Input
Amino acid sequence: MWTLPVIDGVGQRGFVARHGLYDEAQSEAAEAVAARIRELDLATVRVVVVDQHGIPRSKSLAAEVAIAAMANGLDFSGAIWSLDTGNQVFVPAFAPGGGFGIEEFTGFPDVILVPDPATFQVLPWAGRTGWMLSDVYFSSGQPMPLDGRGLMRRALSELAQAGYDYLAGIEVEYYIVKLDPGPLPPEHAGFTPPPPQVSVFERGYQYLSEVRLDSVAGTLEAIRDGLAAVGLPPRSMEDEWGPGQMEFSFSPIGGLAAADSAVLFRSAVKQLCQRRGLLATFMCRPALPNFFSSGWHLHESLLNRPDGDNAFSSEGEALSGTGRQFVAGLLEHAMPMTVFAAPTVNGYKRYRPYSFAPDRVCWACENRGALVRVQGSPGDANSHVENRMGEPAANPYLYMAANIAAGLDGIRRELSPPPPVEADPYTAEAPMLPTSLAAAVGALEQDGFFRKAFGEVVIDYLIQMKRAELARYEAAVSENPPPEGQEVSDWEMREYFEFY
Output
């Protein structure tokens, strides 16, 4: 290990080495990152943790403190795991076990973040600033069970033991809008802010219009260049249906880096837009005129170990036997999986017929209305499946881990999917997807598979959090029902529009 700066109050001296939290590659990367921080004379490094909602939270550290954190860890408030999407504490304050049955969380304690040097980036839009994702541990050195990054790492480990690696292609839709200043809040407690006031970033809807895309070229070029500078050059940028609605896609990314990249992508886009006086929102369906739902289409395949060949490719079919088993697992566990793919009340406004989003549990080859779409043909080395269930606000680690666990279960049990849909998926005889977050939470509560795959603690925690969110939503719409014809409530706009 490199020579550490002597800094008191940063984690626990030697925490990473004492608990064996870096492998050889990470130890070498940490040394290289420390040298680069010093060489570039960075003033601050943001150490980032991704919370239960998929939202990055961070501390900005002085350069030498960040270097020390790679050996000692960094104290960070564990209270963020008690916050719902409205940043309200959803558990009884100071209850035993933090209110959700984890002894170490009693009393809102600190946890210890361990920066992952493999994720280090220099942010080109922020002066002399570095960035690193981190993993979460208790002071005992035990992994914190609610950490989505750790959960996905465990899912990948099980996949590797079965002889496969994971490859994902990210395709995400989102909106860019102008945020108009609203009225100043009254100076009294209990004030409920009005929904955000916005104006459209671009007008009309002309799907894949070159001219309309060019009209916002300055912003898109800034996003393109910023993403490229942090190692995420977009494969494509597209003009979608709604005003200011964009779709970005990226070349396939392997393993944990796929979810890490989704986090960095969303954070970078929001920051780059903010610096231009704009707001990027990954809320699924904002309550704005002519706005359509946005989705997150997760393209995925498995690679055989150790040769790295595509396990979904077949000389005689569009999808191999292994691929079909993976699809069968996705369909088998689709109902409870919706909580991980669509974690908000708003996300269920997307599941409707003839919307290019799924409304039932089926699969098809090259059909955008199916839940699972197979892309490929016989002999195609790039054959893969596309899960069209997700909304852009999904926690990347939970969404991908759920796909990995479900697909691997299909392979282990050698499941066979039902016949693929040949024509109209919206008339197929297949189970309907949940039409509300409440129904999805109910499906997860009754499900035994994800309880075993993710652990009772994680599932019970997510259910408790989502039920609290639903209770606030139901109380708000009961007190202030949306006007007739307004499908998306003011509560959803306040809750999700800027948060995501």
In short: The longest strand covers residues 164-180. Residues 456-479 form the longest helix (24 residues). The chain has a mean pLDDT of 93. Residues 15-146 form a domain with the Ubiquitin-like (UB roll) fold (CATH 3.10.20.70).
